Amino acid sequence: MSESTTISPGTQTNDGSKKMLIAMVGIGVVCAFLIVFSYEGTFGRIEQLKAEALEQAVFKVLPGITKTGIFELTPDGKFIPSDGKDRTKTLVYAGYDDQNTLKGIAIEASGQGYADILKVLYGYDPVSQTIVGFYVLESKETPGLGDKIEKDENFLANFNGLSVALSENFTTVINRVVPVKFGTKENTWEVEGITGATISSRAIGNIIGESTATMIPLIYQQKESFTSAPNTPTK
Amino acid sequence: MNPEIKNIALKDAPGSTDEFIKGLWRENPVFVQVIGMCPTLAVSNSAKNALAMGLATAFVLVMSNVLISSLRNFIPKQVRIATYILIIATFVTMVDYSIQAISVDLHKNLGAFISLIVVNCIILSRAEAYASKNTVSKSAIDGLGMGFGFVFALFCLGSVREILGNGSLFGFPIFPETFQEWIVMILPAGGFFTLASWLLLFNYFKLKKAKS
């Protein structure tokens, strides 16, 4: 350092670099504070909005419920009540009516769609052993074509009484849910596709098929663990 | 009011209105400069999306113009672009969080385009061409003018595309049930058609004005 001060061109470069360094670091620090500040300021609200959106979706896929309870799937295949804060765990949402009777269970599922990962929520009624509701949580499907999976009434009607009946020992779904072409639905376990949204609607059929094949036997075998409603605020 | 301030205000008034109108109309970023085309074509498929995107960009534009112009004597020339991007990215991140906090649905619709405001050429061009050479107040007005020019342009596209492509405006149906939607208008191709039509209209008026 002491040597460079004696050479004038060197000093100039040093000064220039110092100025650049100070400017970049200074502005970087200010920007970092601004970002952290806005992150901290909005974090609670964003989490709350996301939780609300999911809660509303649960009410949409389980008709006639007035309160919900969150359960998480433990690594050994048991369902235990959860606060729902840890989103990395597999969570299911049980829905109850005013008399605290279990009306159904909402299950999240996801898979590859046409544009990106599709995230859906479906409602399962263990009494009738059918899917009773369906809702798209996240989708980036083509507007006007692929996004019909969210709006097409004929398609959504598939998920009103979609059969996921279990075999006698309750370990497998007798007829796995499968997507079929528009106009060829013959059985209650088939998901009729949409013309003009073939890939997206087929993806939904496959996502539901895959998820129900693993989740429904697990849930049905332990349906007693859901019968007591955890104390959650009513809606 | 203090007479001195009044004088300054009067002296400044025509200039600042001009700065504002310039961005809004004469040098409209979309219709005249034809820059920032990526978000213009991508998120103008409904009036609501267009308005939200426009306002987000306008906010970033004003804030970055103000900060860059107030630091213009402090930022060395060699690192100016890096510094501008840093400042712009900060405001974009803030907008991103704010939109998520306002509505999850809206954030879902705007998708990746919010983050892409960072590389929107309108913002960097205003920072480089205007804010780095002018005073804070002038830069703020310039940002406001350009920002609202962008909002206006996006709204022009978004409303036409939503009306024709979805038969509604801001989600409210405006045509009878029998109306057959022009799906193509909300698909990417519709963005090009609508932009071309607006540019045609704008240039027609410009030529007509130049002749008279």
What's the short story on this structure?
The complex is a heterodimer of chains A (235) and B (212). Helices cover 37% and strands 23% of the residues of chain A.
Structural write-up:
The complex is a heterodimer of chains A (235) and B (212). Chain A has helices at 8-61, 148-151, 153-156, 198-221; strands at residues 67-73, 79-81, 91-96, 102-112, 117-125, 130-138, 162-163, 178-180, 190-192. Chain A has 235 residues and is of the alpha+beta class. The termini of chain A are far apart. Mean pLDDT of chain A is 85; it is low at 1-8. With 212 residues, chain B is mainly α. Helix content of chain B is 71%, strand content 2%. Chain B contains eight helices and two strands, in the order H-H-H-H-H-H-H-E-E-H. Chain B has helices at 3-26, 37-42, 47-70, 80-102, 104-110, 121-131, 136-166, 188-211, and strands at residues 168-169, 172-173. In chain B, a hairpin with a 2-residue loop joins strand 1 (168-169) and strand 2. In chain B, helix 3 runs antiparallel to helix 4, helix 3 runs parallel beside helix 6 (121-131) and helix 6 runs antiparallel to helix 7 (136-166). The longest helix of chain B is centred in the C-terminal third of the chain and has 31 residues, at 136-166. Mean pLDDT of chain B is 86; it is low at 1-13. The A-B interface holds A 16, 19-20, 23-24, 27-28, 31, 34-35, 38-39, 41-42, 45-46, 49-50, 53, 138, 140, 142-145 and B 45, 71, 74-76, 78-79, 82-83, 86-87, 89-91, 93-94, 97-98, 100-101, 103-105, 108, 111, 165, 183, 186-187.
Count of helical stretches of chain A: 4
Q: Percent of residues of chain B in beta strands?
A: under 5%
| Main sheet strand line-up of chain A | 2-1-3-4-5-6-7
Tell me the series of helices and strands of chain A, N- to C-terminal. Answer: HEEEEEEHHEEEH
Largest sheet data of chain B: 2 strands, antiparallel
Q: Name the chain pair with the biggest interface and residue counts per chain.
A: A-B, 25 and 29 residues
